[in-house]
Structures are given as C-alpha cells and as structure tokens.
Amino acid sequence: MKKYKIAFIGAGNVATHLSNELKKCGHEMVQVYSRTEESAKQLADSLHTTFTTSTETITKEADIYIVALKDSAVDQVLSKIGFGDKLLVHCSGSLPMSVLSQYAKNYGVFYPLQTFSKNRKVDFKQIPIFVEASSSENLNILEELANELSESVTILNSEKRKSLHIAAVFACNFANHCYAMAAKYLETKDLQFEILRPLIMETAQKVQELHPKDAQTGPAIRFDENIIKSHLSELKEMSDLQELYNSNSKSIFEHHQEKQ
C-alpha cells in the first residue's frame, strides 16, 4: 500500500493514538499543529517530527491532513489554512462531512468509535472505524488506511454517524459519569471505588451476550418504591446525585413498561 505524508491538526487524545498507529504502519507524520506548545511538542516528540502553534506555518508538504479538534474549533482553525488539492479529513462523530467542503477540494471522515485517553493503550484492531469521503478515489484512500489499523471498517454517511455518536455518548460518557457519581458518593462514606470494579466488569461483559434491556436488574425495573424512597432520602444532602438517581429510575421503569 502507498505510504502517505500526514499532518495532524490537533494533539489531543484521538490525535495521539491515531498518529502513533499510522506511524507504526509506515506512514510519515510530517507535522503536528496545536494551539498550545506543550501538547504540540509532546506529540511531535513521540512521533519524531516537527510541530507548530501557528496556522500560518502549517506545512504544505502533507498528502493528508487529519483534523482532530473539538467541533467548535474546526471552523476557527481551518479557515486560516489553505489545503489546495490535498485530502482533508476530520475525526468527529457529530460534524457532517460537508463542513470541510469550503476548505478543500478533497475531503472525508475517519471516525474511530472508541474512548481514548493519552496514556492508556488500546487495540486498534478491535476498534470500529467509519469512513466517508467526497469521491470514490478519496474513499479508497481512507478505506485502505482504516483497514491497516482495524479489522472493522465501515462506510457510513454523516447522518448515521451522528446517530452512532449519540448512542456512544449514552453507552460511554454517561455510563462513565455514573461511575464518577458512584465514586463521589462512596468517598463521603469512607468507601473505595475499587469495591465496584467487579460489578462494573460483569455489567459490561453481560451485554456482550444479552440485549441491554434483558440484562437490566435492580429496584427501578420493578419500581420498588420502598428501596427507591430510602435511597432518595439517603441522597438528600447530595442533590445532583438524588436528581440523577430519580430520573434514571423513572427512565428504567418506563422503558421496561414498553413492549418488546
């Protein structure tokens, strides 16, 4: 497969993992851009390449520019760069591909569906990657790149990708927030979050075999008012947890009243 010169616009979690994986596959990382020197230099050093904090000095030598910025920063940064006929790609779950059309002739999406933290290793072979592009030629390039990294590559349009991202927020971000709230509560009782780890693991493993609706347990599914009221009373000094507990309990019960 052809090896590309790739520049990263962004140096956060996604950029860190994706750039290092692409480098392992033999592609050349020619530059990292970030608005903060610390993050740009840290990633560039790990890739043995150069960095910049100025859009004016972003390299013209890359074949592919991969944008891994928060959605609200994309327009602000890209509007200051000229890409010509180079391939411009973003990694966002929610941004439509069309946002790139005003900045480049060739553009697309390269979306790995996973939660990334800089210092935690992930197995890219197991990460689903979703691609979309402005032409068949560009799509072929992105599919080839994705297939180098992952065993699960799918062409997906912007509308379905956004739906997938919404579902991922529920499955990952909201679930993790519940872990954080559980830890917050346990700390007030001088108990360690580690106690919950086996429960969390079994909950995650169970939905590998069962539909989540079939895996649901607990007082809310049967709306056990005595337990729920007792728990809500216990949480009266922590209004944020009390509100979350109450709304989730209602949602669980109502969901299980619906017909399959």
Give the SSE map.
Elements: E1 5-9, H1 13-24, E2 28-33, H2 37-47, E3 50-52, E4 64-67, H3 71-78, E5 87-90, E6 106-112, E7 129-133, H4 136-149, E8 153-155, H5 158-188, H6 197-206, H7 212-215, H8 225-234, H9 239-255
Parallel strand pairs: 1-2, 1-4, 2-3, 4-5, 5-6, 7-8
Antiparallel strand pairs: 6-7
Helix pairs in contact: 8-9
Which strand order does the major sheet show? 3-2-1-4-5-6-7-8
Strand portion, in percent? 5-15%
Structural class: alpha/beta
Provide the domain count. Answer: 2
Q: Distance N terminus to C terminus? A: 47 Å
Alpha plus pi helix count: 9
Radius of gyration: 22 Å
CATH class category label of the largest domain: Alpha Beta
Account of the protein in words:
There is one protein chain. By secondary structure, the protein is of the alpha/beta class. It is elongated and about 65 Å long. It is built from 9 helices and 8 strands. Helix 8 runs antiparallel to helix 9. Strands 3-2-1-4-5-6-7-8 form an 8-stranded mixed β-sheet, covered by helices on one side. The chain has 2 domains: 152 residues, NAD(P)-binding Rossmann-like Domain (Rossmann fold); 95 residues, Orthogonal Bundle (N-(1-d-carboxylethyl)-l-norvaline Dehydrogenase, domain 2), CATH 1.10.1040.20. It starts with a strand and ends in a 5-residue tail after the last helix.
